[in-house]
Amino acid sequence: MIVAPDRRPLTRDFFDRPVLDVAPELLGRTLVRRTPQGPIELRITEVEAYNGSSDPGSHAYRGRTARNASMFGPPGHAYVYFIYGMWFSLNLVCNKEGTASGVLLRAGEVLTGTQQAAERRPKARNARELAKGPARLATALDIDRSLDGTDICSTDPDQPLTVLHGHPAEAAEVLNGPRTGISGEGAAHPWRFWIDGDPTVSPYRAHVPRKRRSRAA
């Protein structure tokens, strides 16, 4: 018998825990993005954990700034950042206020609102590629800095972002390994989590240093 996904929103207590407990348990949950054009729902299939001041890979490693302020809590809020001058990424804030830990949503399966997502991602070759990677996910769901700090645990039906219980992945389905594109000490942390065999999971890429352009003599 097929059981319908649980439509109850995740509570603040779910996020008010260590990030390494929250991250794998987000797999299989349903992210709801409400837009003027209608809702888009996405099943989360890949995430990465970032652990604040103890994690060299985290934006908050060197302390609080205007850019990363939402990462310092309270838990159950969105942290949205702009990267490479062209892409946004969505993170869900975890743990006690002031700890600056969060989970990056790396990939997911679009369940509803596929046409709307496809219009934002015209280069996607099929539905599996609509949200295959953090920038693609944010683009498909129309996520930008205006959503930074959004309370994702609010029961307001007009709230732009909510995470529902969904169908949490079984522990045997969850794999973990190094995070994508992280350099230095943080590269060794196996804090990327994904659902084994899911076709929407993005390919792993190690960090590749960027070459500086040489100036003409």
UniProtKB/TrEMBL annotation:
Its EC number is 3.2.2.-. Gene3D superfamilies: Methylpurine-DNA glycosylase (MPG). The keyword Hydrolase applies. One of its GO terms (molecular function) is alkylbase DNA N-glycosylase activity. Keywords: DNA damage, DNA repair, Hydrolase. Pfam families: Pur_DNA_glyco (PF02245). GO terms for biological process: base-excision repair. PANTHER family: DNA-3-METHYLADENINE GLYCOSYLASE. Belongs to the DNA glycosylase MPG family. This is Putative 3-methyladenine DNA glycosylase. It comes from Streptomyces chrestomyceticus JCM 4735.
